[in-house]
Amino acid sequence: MSKVLIIGAGGVGNVVAHKCAQVPEVFSEILLASRNENKCKVIAADVKAATGREIQTASVDAENVEATVALIKKFQPKLLINVALPYQDLPLMDACLHAGIHYLDTANYEPPNHAKFEYSWQWAYQERFQKAGLTALLGSGFDPGVTNVFCAYAQKHLFDEIELIDIMDANAGDHGYPFATNFNPEINIREITQRGRFWEQGEWREIDPLSIHQEYEYPVLGAKSSYLLYHEELESLAQNIKGLKRIRFFMTFSEKYLTHLRVLENVGMTRIDPIEFQGQQIVPIQFLKAILPDPASLGPRTKGKTCIGCDITGTKDGKKKRVFIYNICDHQECYREVKSQAISYTTGVPAMIGGAMLATGKWLRPGVWNMEQCDPDPFMDMLNQHGLPWHIQELPVAE
Ligand code: NDP
To answer: What is the pTM of this model?
Structure first.
């Protein structure tokens, strides 16, 4: 049994707190800390009502390493689950090293003034975590996260060699607003408006934003327009899946969403550089975030399902083979269970499971690791037990 410190009381933090509270045999005590403690208290009250468990709360600025170290030393957790923003990854990794505890996050570090997604900054901590005998688990959400574990499972059990991977992410949920993002709007819009990228024959290929799309037939949801984006798990999977020839990532967007995004981009509202406004400096995308619906508020309004999975082609026993490994998640069922929509749910459940892998010692190995570098089996079992059951569909091999 382990004490866990959760940092970040947004949509995902809410789910992680609920799900950790549901497994007292793994997480004996929980402290939820965020910039604004009131948000933690609201979540703590909901968790108490749902599970009967008390969770502690605190206020912390995760960018202040000393303050986080002081909080860790006082509470003495075994691990820290970072579900604040990607900007806080490095200071939180530093705090874990100083205080001697394990680290986990769901999104790779991004410098605030440059929309750039890469693992280099966090991989640079490899030696420090190794020397300290501590584990840092990177990207334990759904994508990255479960998608990496699906690929590791396919590599271990379904294929002798994997050649092609398309990660397919469909959200067929409707929240009734003309425009809103399902997780932090600033992080979401920065991801979508950058140039697309995929990996083929050992090289990265770049395309204009959203310039490649396909109609993909998702189980349960049916055909959906899916757009090629760069997504951070491509970087580690391209290195860790042996024999891979191509890996891409696709996400669905409605025409309505894309039209809003185009207009916001054209008028400069998605800019991430500061501008002068009435005598003060503001960053347009941060102002936009302030006026868009809070993703945490979408839960009660969102109806429909998500389907996220990995379409994998390779060979087994000398024969070509193609499978889709996926999960279907229902927005309203998530809301009934933890008062959250499916995007936060599908991120928060794997964050809890990754935490359990560290807390129970199954994935403890000094160093900095991406999910596919760990044994997929215990993680896949916990997905089935904790609300994200997965399925495997055999598909015809594309000529
Ligand atoms: P939210 O914006 O809803 O929540 C972020 C929380 O972090 C807020 O409570 C915020 O506090 C807190 N926070 C921000 N800065 C600090 C700071 N300096 N110190 C302490 N707390 C801070 O985001 P989400 O919950 O939607 O997303 C959380 C994370 O999950 C993000 O990193 C996101 O990229 C990642 N994610 C990963 C996915 C995956 O599948 N891998 C999918 C979706 C999200 P305050 O309210 O005071 O601002």
So the answer is: 0.94
